[in-house]
Amino acid sequence: MKTLLVVAAAVVATFLTIAQFGTAGWTRPPILAQQHGFRGTGMDQIQTKAGAAALKAANVAPDPAEPVEQGTDKAGATYQNVQVLKDVSVEEFNRLMTSMTEWVAPEQGCTYCHNTENMADDSLYQKKVARRMIQMVQHINTTWKEKHVGEAGVTCYTCHRGQPVPKNVWFDNPGPNYKTAFTPRNNGQNLASPSVGLASLPYNTFAEFFAKKDVDQNLIRVNATTALPESKGKPIQDAERTYGLMMHMSSALGVNCTYCHNTRAISNWSQSTPQRTLAWHAIRMVRDLNGDYIEPLTSTFPPNRLGPTGDAPKLNCATCHNGQNKPLAGAHVVETYPELTQVTAEAGAAPPQEPAPAKEPTPAPAPAPN
Questions:
Q1: Are 305 and 129 in contact (CB under 8 A)?
Q2: Which portions of the sequence form the region Disordered (predicted)?
Q3: Predicted TM-score (pTM) of this structure
Q4: 136 assigned to a ligand binding site
Q5: b or e along 346-357 (b: 16 or more beta carbons within 10 Å of the residue's beta carbon)?
Q6: Is residue 261 annotated as involved in ligand binding?
Q7: Would the annotation count 110 as a binding residue?
């Protein structure tokens, strides 16, 4: 009898195993693989076909507004209190305003930024912010064209995706005890923060790498540059912060480490892909935008739009990329909006200038160590 039960149990287990592998979706899904490095190095980006299709569908650039015939009247001479786009024709100005409504506030409409009883009124903070954001877009499409965004450029939609507040913004993370004024004894980590892939890495990584324009240009580099130590190295906490930043960039772009690095020699620029140079500039671009355009707006935002420590909502890699290695799959979104590809100054203020980097990188053999 015991032998019979053992045989019956074995038969049942066999059928259950067959059922699991045959009917429970245990087969490998169709895979898409793109090689970005030398053959044999394993520098591939791997996605499921279903995942790639879903990501593509969620990142479609909107159709541009119908073109208009450019007239001779300028917006600044026709409308009151036009400060940034005053030299744009009235027709192009109206077309851009219509597009901005669709890009940023399609549900709220013009009233999100304007008092429609008096369009020149500046009482709404949204209008002041939008004015500065137009300048920021122009700055990106000019100063950072060659170094990062290329011919594709950016518009308001690149970040906003039809929402007044972009999905991916960040605030300073003061830690778990900021309301009680007690200093947490957790070394700024050991909390499952989404910014570092829900790991126990330092949770305020963005403040270290993205918030300050005058930060040490070698802050990210933690590995030695010589075979033997010549001075005291950086502590393990610095390495953890750098690793947290790399995890964010990987997640924000929907790629793995080999998109930029050959992981057999991860710090070697000559074995890295061209994307690493673009990322080098991207880090500095984010610092530039947060420092010159976002932080100065802190006093303009109402308290409910500020973070727990009273800071403005800032940018990171995910703000534009939204999980794709190229925002909106690399669509050339500014070709039909030439007014966003030139810098215009706000009344009484000069357009901000890009800070000089410590050292310009080149794809090969070795750019600045960062």
A1: no
A2: 343-370
A3: 0.83
A4: no
A5: eeeeeebeeeeb
A6: yes
A7: yes
